[in-house]
Amino acid sequence: MKKNILMLVFLALAITTNAQQPAPQRPPMGQGPRDGRGPRDGRGPMGKEGRGEDKEKIEMFKIQFITKKLALTSSEAELFWPVYEAHKKAMKEIVESKTNDEIQLQEATLNARKKYKNELKPVLKSDERVNEALKIEREFLQKIRHEMMRRKGFQA
Fold first, then answer.
1. Burial of 142 (0-12, 13-18, 19+ CB in 10 A)
2. Would you say 117 and 84 are in contact if contact means Cβ atoms under 8 Å apart?
């Protein structure tokens, strides 16, 4: 009898131990799941709301990055950011409207960049700084891409 009771207790413990779900592993701070999707309900830090927050964080990082790289003074920054935002909006419109014709897309992009350069000249006051401003977004995107790859476990 003792042997049967002991066997039942052991069997019950083995079943309950194997039936429990392991505690969920949380990704390190600032990192979401590998496929970029969060919970299916759209709430929480990795859902739709989380993506909006991530986008805002990236935008803030971008502002800091550009301001630091160009060494903008507060008066230059006040003049620079409206020009930058107008250029960003124009580029978005170009991409949305000209995506069917590659030559028109490239031509419109070049014209927008020339206009941007002319508008930046009075703000940044030197050709070197204007040229740096034209390169800086590409550099920022490369940094973001590199960081995303690093977080996903790829070596760059």
1. exposed
2. no
